[in-house]
Structures are given as structure tokens and as C-alpha cells.
Specification:
Bound molecules: zinc ion
Strand content: 15-25%
Order of helices and strands: EHHEHEEHEHHEEHHEHEHEHEEH
Structural class: alpha/beta
Number of strands: 12
Radius of gyration: 20 Å
Length: 334
């Protein structure tokens, strides 16, 4: 039986940034429609302006619902919230654009909770603009968690070479170490394991990093954090048949993952996971939120106000984010 392609809500992001351009550029690629049914939540007029600056001849059609969308190459279906002010300047911070970006995410979250879409793919929003509009969230991840009533999610970075899920992310390093405990490590590994399985890896091999240099080197570095915070979690996971190995020295773990020894690396804090991935190039990385009612992917670049409106933004990361969203969405698995 052929299951329908997953419907993906694409939020347009901050209308003053490159979001509208990367959305239009990615959806001008007909191959995207072979993998998913994309529906933009945004502003139809802004998407038409973005098409103009990019020189794309796509048709932008405002629809009221998922049911009205046609998902045909050459046509961009958009739930048009029409919130952006007339003559919004490219590349200039705007609280109105921040408010609009918030509303796109809110509508996408509603569609996800109602099971009308199987994934969300987000174009970048501007945190300053979001805050100026009165929505005080560190970013999309926390915003989507709040909107869907989920207390704990994990951030995964995905590249063709290495995938890494984080036990902690946007929090001070001292606070991060304090927050890590066996329960949080266990839940994070389980979320990563589930995501890998839904992407088609039947028995994922998961490498779990230590906290200290050389994963503590038998007590030489640190105060036994690996034994206290990580090892009890690994024992429970292994007892459940999850192939979670470690605690590994983080520096070599990424090297080993890069040559194929691990399907997924578990990083304990933000820079431990982000550093190695960013070396592979900003274009290569897709940011995935794991643990929401639906999978959410995002480009791993920002609003790039300096080049917004010039039609020069790279769309590769958006195309890759859509591909990963389609791969991880439940409708696409057997
Ligand atoms: Zn970050």
C-alpha cells in the first residue's frame, strides 16, 4: 500500500530576513514535491516579493486549510496570515515581523497537534524581533515545546556524516553539568533511538560522550561525573536492548562516528556537539527537534539580515531540512 507523502508545515520565519527567499527557492525545486506535501505558513505577498528578487516564476496561492492545498510543483500553497506591514524593509529588525513569525509557528503547532501535518520545517526567526514582540523564548525549540505542551525535547544536529543529539543545549556550562543526571541522559538517548529508528536505522549504534576530557580517564580528570551521571543510564538502556556505548572521550567519538562506527552521538552540552558539526560546514547541518508531537527540522543558519532581499541566499540547507523532515515523518515509514 502506498502511504501518502507526509504533509510538512513550513513556517516562513522572520519576514525581514532570508526566510521567505529560502522557502521560495527550496520550493522552486520540483524534486521536493516527490518527497513531501509542503504547505507554507506565512505571508503570500512577501513570498511573491521573494520570488521576484530571486527571479523564480513560481505561483504563490493562498489557501485556508491543508485540504485546499494542491502540492504541485511550480505552485506554492500558503496559509496566508497577512500579518506583515506594507513596505516591510528587508534586513531591518521589526517587532511586527517578530510577532508574525511567532504566529506562523503557533499555527504550524496547531496543525501538528491536530495531526494535519506530519512534520514542521522552520525558516529562521530573529530572536531579537521575537522578544521585541513580547515572546520571550530562546528559540524555536522552546517555543514549539511550549505551544504543544511538551516539557522536555532534545536538539539533534544532522549531517550526512554525523548525527548528534544533545543532553543539554542553551544553558550555561556550569548549569548544564549540574542539570545532567542519569534520568535526563536516559530520556535523551531514548528520544534519539526512536528518531533513528523512524528514519529507518533498525538497530542504531549510539555513542555517548563523557563530560570530562578523556571521559574522566578513570578519575584523573573531574570528580567522577561519568560514573555518577552517565553510567547508570547506559546500564538501564542496555538492559532494554538499546546499543548505547560509552561514556566515550568526546574528541575521538566524533572521529569514529565520522568513519561510520556510530549512527548517533550523544553530546552532553551545546559546544561538545555543535563544534564538530559546524566544522563540516554550516550548509550541511540540519537542526532537528526530537520529542515534539511531530518531528521538526530547521535550517542551521540565521535570518542573515545583511543579505536579505538580495536574492543570493543559499537554499541548500532548506532543501536538506525538508528532506530530513520527510525522512523522519511517520507517514513515510513502512
Ligand atoms: Zn545554539
Amino acid at each position: 500500500m502506498n502511504s501518502p507523502l507526509p504533509a510538512i508545515a513550513i513556517t516562513m520565519g522572520d519576514g525581514a530576513g532570508i526566510g521567505p527567499e529560502v522557502v521560495v527557492g527550496a520550493l522552486a525545486d520540483a524534486a521536493v514535491y516527490e518527497r513531501c506535501r509542503p504547505l507554507v505558513i506565512g505571508d503570500a505577498r512577501r513570498l511573491r516579493e521573494a520570488a521576484l528578487v530571486r527571479g523564480e516564476t513560481v505561483e504563490v496561492v493562498a489557501v485556508e486549510s491543508v485540504a485546499q492545498a494542491r502540492f504541485e510543483p511550480g505552485r506554492i500553497d500558503v496559509i496566508d496570515l497577512g500579518l506583515l506591514p506594507d513596505g516591510l524593509e528587508w534586513g531591518k529588525l521589526s517587532p511586527a515581523a517578530g510577532e508574525a513569525a511567532y504566529q506562523y509557528v503557533r499555527v504550524a503547532a496547531e496543525l501538528a497537534v491536530a495531526h494535519e501535518v506530519q512534520a514542521i520545517c522552520t525558516a529562521p526567526l530573529n530572536k531579537e524581533a521575537l522578544h521585541a514582540a513580547g515572546h520571550i523564548y530562546p528559540g524555536h525549540t522552546e517555543l514549539l515545546a511550549a505551544l504543544t505542551g511538551i516539557e522536555e525535547v532534545s536538539m539533534m544536529l544532522s549531517t550526512p556524516k554525523v548525527k548528534v543529539i544533545h543532553v543539554t543545549t542553551h544553558i550555561g556550562l556550569i548549569d548544564a553539568i549540574a542539570r545532567i543526571d542519569p534520568g535526563l541522559v536516559e530520556r535523551t538517548v531514548r528520544r534519539g533511538h526512536r528518531a533513528m529508528r523512524s528514519s529507518g536505522v533498525e538497530a542504531p549504534v549510539i555513542g555517548v560522550c563523557g563530560i570530562n576530557p578523556h571521559a574522566g580517564e578513570n578519575g584523573l580528570f573531574g570528580a567522577g561525573e561519568e560514573a555518577e551521571k552517565i553510567e547508570p543510564a547506559l546500564e538501564k538502556l542496555r538492559a532494554d536492548g538499546i546499543d548505547a556505548r560509552g561514556p566515550l572521550p568526546a574528541d575521538t567519538a566524533f572521529f569514529l562516528a565520522g568513519r561510520g562506527d556510530y549512527d548517533l552521538i550523544v553530546a552532553m552540552y551545546h559546544d561538545q556537539g555543535h563544534g564538530p558539526v559546524k566544522v563540516l560546514g554550516i550548509e550541511a547541518g540540519v537542526n532537528i527537534t526530537v520529542g515534539l508531537p511531530v518531528i521538526r527540522t530547521s535550517v542551521d543558519h540565521g535570518t542573515a539580515f545583511d543579505i536579505a532581499g538580495t536574492g543570493t541566499a543559499e537554499v541548500g540547507s532548506m532543501i536538506e531540512a525538508l528532506r530530513q523532515a520527510a525522512d523522519l515523518a511517520p507517514a513515510s515509514v513502512g
